Amino acid sequence: MAQYIFPDANTQDVCLIQDTTGNVNLVLNGNLASGGHVSFIENGYSRQLSFSAAGNLSSAVFTIYGIQNGVAIIETINGPNANTVYSVNIYDVVTNITSSIAVTGISIGTGHSGFFQLLMPTISGISNLNYNFTLGSTFGTNVIGTTVYGTLGNIVNTGHTFSDIITNNVGTLYTIKASGNETFYMYPDNSTLVTSILIKLTGSTSTIGNSMTLTFLQLI
């Protein structure tokens, strides 16, 4: 059995609060940083980024360099103005972040949306499929929305991000579970064959303090 947790967001998971002296690289020294980069996928998920500051940094342009599903991503985002702003893209790994000007008191963390690690069941020759999974959240809280997709095709390192595959229906992706905010979900169908299961997490500022747990069981 494998278990993955999409944790509640933290504004310093990528970069601790720091100042820069000009157009330079930020130091990736946050809670999840290791070896000069941040790998969300090593923790079982992919995630968007948050940029937070107490002051007005809206004139600064930050450039994010990262990877999702083998695709190199470069994204620019204007800085926050005494608030938190979020990246559009979702990342497996963040390799570098730069600022266009000197900034004071910037921290970079995790956003409210992302993906769980792709599930790729080992298919046996038995008549009933030998795997199942559940999604669970804390009861009585604002629940992160989930959408579950399945495919018989290979969607790993195809030259498309998972977001691109969903938006443009690249390949044979189809919806297993429509978007919803259930506190508990169990995969209901052990007779439909899929080789990959993609779980999209769609949160908001109201779900930022919540987490989601994926439990996957396979009998070999």
List keywords for this structure.
five-stranded antiparallel beta sheet; mainly beta; 2 domains; 1 helix; 220 residues; seven-stranded antiparallel beta sheet; 16 strands
Model description:
The protein has 220 residues and is mainly beta. The chain folds into 2 domains: 9-111, Jelly Rolls, CATH 2.60.120; 116-218, no CATH class. It is built from 1 helix and 16 strands. A hairpin with a 2-residue loop joins strand 6 (61-68) and strand 7 (71-78). The chain is elongated, with a radius of gyration of 18 Å. The model has no long low-confidence stretch (mean pLDDT 92).
Q: Gap between N and C termini, in Å?
A: 11 Å
- CATH architectural arrangement of the largest domain: Sandwich
Q: Using the coordinates shown, work out and report the CATH topology of the largest domain.
A: Jelly Rolls
**Are there runs of 5+ residues with pLDDT below 50, and where?**
none
The number of domains is 2
Specify the biggest β-sheet. Answer: 7 strands, antiparallel
Number of helices: 1
